Amino acid sequence: MKKFIIFTTILFVSLTGVLSSNLAYSQTGIEEIVVTARKRVENLSEIPLAITVFSARDIQESGFKNLEDLSLQVAGFQHSAQGGQAPGRVNSQLRFRGMNVNSLSEDPSLNIATMFVDGIYVIGGYHSIPLEEVERVEVIKGPQSALYGRSTFGGAVNYITKDPSTEGNQGHLDILVGEDGERIVYGSFEGPITEVLSARIAAKQYKRDGIFTASDGGQMGAEETESIVGSLVAKGDTWKLKIRAFHSQDNDGGPAGGYVLGYRNDSCTGTTATTNDPSAPTVNPKNYVCGMVPGPGSAIDYFGGTNVIDMNAIMTANAAAKMDALPITASFANGNVPSLPYGQYGMARDSDRLNINTSFDLANDSTLEASWGFNKVAAMWVRDFDYTSTSNSTARDPYISRDRTFDVKLISNQDNDLRWLVGINRYEQDFIHRGQGGAILLECVNSFGMPNSGFYFPNADGTPNLYAPTGPLWFLGVPAPIAPYDFDSRTCNIEYKGGNSVDTGAGNNSDSVISQGIYASVDYDFSEQLTLSTEVRWQREQISQVFAQSATNELSFDNILPRIIVRYKANENSMFYASYSKGVLPGKANDAVQAADDRELAQYRATQPNVLRFLDEEELDSYELGWKGSGLLDGRATLSVALYQADWANQKGRSTAVINETCRAPDLADANIDCSVVGEPKKQLNGTPQYNVRNFAVMGNSEINGIEIEGTMQVTEKFSIVGTLGIADSEFNDYAYNFVSAFAGYSQMAGNTMPRYPEDSASISGTYKDSLNNGWDMFVRGDINYFGETYADESNLATCDSYTLANARGGIEKDNVRLELYVNNLFDEEAWTACARWSDFASPSSFALFTASQGISVTPLRSRNLGLRISYDF
Predict the structure, then answer these.
(1) What angle do CA 381, 384, 390 make, to 5 degrees?
(2) CA–CA distance from 557 to each of 514, 543, 609 (Å)?
């Protein structure tokens, strides 16, 4: 909604204030808070970074339930449960400034941004971390590699958790009851144990029934999380030690999602498009969506109706039995990951985290700080792989991730003109993933080769005698070919099921990482107005990777990662800054390509000529100009503006190839294919070529430009506003992506925009507070969040429409009691919150033309929902 963007911009300028939730309100103005985004305590208004901060009070008054809610009110940041192509809370991603990673893996090595808790790296499971335990959220935009290291390529989110009270025993109880069976119960108790030791314990249960009902009678979108956390803080005059332990369990049903099938919703056929692909400057796309993706109630489902949000929620008897019989990789057996009941879709995830932070004040007013952290996340994920109500594809994708972090740094006296810090850290990660259909059941395969209408036994003259489309002797027959794009005429000829009991089989995507770094920062005040900051990290990453059909690949990368910042304070209320920073993402072995023989490699290169066996590191060179105004309008307003430009080199883009692979030694025992001699091409049992679909990556580059405006204003003593505006303009300069070539007609995406991130987004919130005559205080708050249009994939053919989400809440509070009524999605907006291209696993598959049929996986906006929240301190 461009008018909303324009209105918000005018409002920012005319009022000279609009947000960063970075300041807490007082009766007389706006009160400054501090942040630790640069690994030391600094005033937010003086830190030369684009950073948005929310205090615990901000989180409570905003009604944020999770990071996805919070992200809607941060310019330049996006987080959704459907982070990639799969609906649900499994593959969530943090995105910054228009950047997108084209991967459906949970592999943390692929992340462009990451989460920290008390400055310690967190691996996955962001939705399970309770915001009630957070004292402050810092959202830091742009590369943070110089100080934070790996996986901060685009930005970082840091949760600063609450310390136990040292002033007597305290407790807190928070209860929320909402529609769709939603309920949240959170309780905490804390207090001193001795003069130097205090403790805190808290527990939370979140549960929600399904928000949609599938045609099979099951519920979609049911979620449940239970967590418990405990912390101990020992504190003396010159030292502090904090130990924090956390455990959570997620138990979700099948997600609320669906599939907009391309050939059912075809708006491309008959159109012409121009591209920057020199091999296909003009194309005629077909069997896909060109323009706006049909919304809820308009999109046509697999069976020709309009009930797109209709995934299987109850597994069929055949699917349940076949999936149960598939072997599970040894790493995930014997209780190493949580289990799901027999025949159930959903996700079960256990997370364990342990953090230790300590600090010592030294005699020269410097500080020594050390931290150690451990995380383990183990998940079992069973999903309807076709995202429709037909039972064709079911996948089981467990993963386990473990990591350990150690960091120690020495910080100088921060009151001097010359200030510095120096530190070392070490990070170790072990990740085991049976992703992308690690164990998969395809109940309706048309052919492992070209599509056909069935198989027949010929008469002597070659005419058909007996058709055998599903019988056990189909492989003795002859395929009857049909038109490649005649999807409706494809029959179900084969049932395919694949799994593996060893860790190195197809579908496995695992790595082990050791990352070591030495970092330093020096700030020097040339005058009261001018400051130069330099930061640098030396980093070495050693990576062991295992992919489909490959032995372990040992990789090593060394880097020098700088950030340089010049800050100029025009006066006590105005600060300008300019910065340059560099971020890197590690290179990798290129999936099955790195193990390909010469014949297979020739097939990959026929698809993408520039494909390499090993991929270089990705690099991001980022430039930023910013201005921060504090104490504006007699101390009633703040305003921050950031303009940025970034160049992204060696960007990994997913491509696919249909490969007639070579027989290897393990294939000789496979009864489903014809492999009798190592080195010969694989064949189907009827003698025709057997094809496999393999994903790989090709490197490209892009550029990103944008602006972020955030501000606050205390309009009157009783009324305040908070607002954000973000514009992110990304463009591929060179990016090969062939998942869409079968329907789009081209594979070079130069000139296109990165998908799944809106070019424009905005929010505005207003809060009114007043005192009542009976000693109670009242409050009313309204939020309008605008999320702009996004592209479903790199071709930019299909566009996911923008939406505007309005929320309202109001209530009363007195001393230690707070009562609140809320309405989310006040105007019952219907929209897709996420859209992503996804291959068609619902129609009968033809492996030789696997990508010919595509569609768009979608997650719907939750309908209007009301609830009551009660908070009590004791």
Answers:
(1) 170
(2) 11, 9, 26
| Token couple for 502 | 């060893």
Class of the CATH-defined domain 2-262+290-440+503-873: mainly beta
DSSP 8-class letter at 674: B
Query: What is the Cα–Cα distance from 736 to 752, expressed in whole angstroms?
Result: 11
Confidence at residue 470, expressed as pLDDT on a 0 to 100 scale: 42
Q: Answer for the pair 2, 756: CB distance below 8 angstroms, yes or no.
A: no
Q: Please, which residues have CB within 8 angstroms of residue 863's CB and are 6 or more apart in sequence?
A: 211, 825, 828, 830
- pLDDT tens digits for range 487-526: 888 888 888 776 654 444 444 567 889 999 999 999 999 9
The kind and range of the H/E element at 13 are helix 2-15
Distance CA 514, CA 150 (A): 11
Structure token pair of residue 484: 């490649």
Q: Which two tokens stand for residue 557?
A: 């990368």
Q: How far apart are CA 399 and CA 845, in angstroms?
A: 27
Question: Dihedral through CA 302, CA 306, CA 312, CA 314, nearest 10?
Answer: -130
Task: Say how far apart CA 77 and CA 58 lie, in whole Å.
Answer: 18
Q: How many CB atoms lie within 10 A of CB 775?
A: 8
How far is C-alpha 376 from the chain's CA centre? 18
Which residues contact residue 774 at a Cβ distance below 8 angstroms, ignoring those fewer than 6 apart?
Answer: none
Q: Label each residue of 165-205 as H, E or C.
A: CCCCCEEEEEEEEECCCCEEEEEEEEEECCCCEEEEEEEEE
Q: Residue 548 — φ and ψ, nearest 5°?
A: -55, 135
The dihedrals phi and psi of 182, each to the nearest 5 degrees, come to -75, 135
pTM of the model: 0.89
**Phi, psi for 606 (deg, rounded to 5):** -70, -25
Distance of CA 227 to the CA centre of its chain: 21
In order of 8, 98, 547, 760, the CA distances from 94 in angstroms are 25, 11, 25, 17
CA 282 vs CA 274, 278, 542, 731, 745: distances in Å: 5, 9, 45, 20, 9
Token output for 88: 């649900």
Q: Which residues pair with 620 in a beta bridge?
A: 583, 648
Residue 694: per-residue pLDDT? 83
Q: Tell the residue number behind the tokens 């030789």, with chain if given.
A: 848
* Rounded CA separation 61/52 (Å): 16
Would you state the structure tokens that stand for residue 87, as one six-digit string? 């609906």
CA 466 to CA 456: how far, in whole Å?
Answer: 5
Q: What is the DSSP string of 550-562?
A: ---EEEEEEEEEE
Q: How many Å separate Cα 304 from the centre of its chain?
A: 32
pLDDT tens column, 683-721: 887 788 888 878 888 899 999 999 999 999 999 999 999
Of 639, 621, 536, the residue nearest 50 (C-alpha): 639
Residues 6+ apart with CB under 8 A from 7: none
User: What is the average pLDDT across 355-365?
Assistant: 93
**Strand bridging mode 798-800 / 291-292:** parallel
Residues 114, 153: Cα–Cα separation, whole Å: 9
Q: Would you tell me how many other CB atoms lie within 10 Å of the CB of residue 254? A: 27
How many C-alpha atoms does 779 have within 13 Å on its Cβ side?
20
Mean pLDDT score of the chain, rounded to an integer? 87
Burial of 673 (0-12, 13-18, 19+ CB in 10 A): middle
User: Residue 113 in contact with residue 88, Cβ under 8 Å?
Assistant: no
Q: Is the distance from CB of 818 to CB of 811 less than 8 angstroms? A: yes
What pLDDT score does 23 carry? 40
Rg over CA atoms, the chain: 28
Asked if residue 731 lies in contact with residue 751, where contact means CB atoms within 8 angstroms, the answer is yes
Token pair, residue 719, equals 């009324």
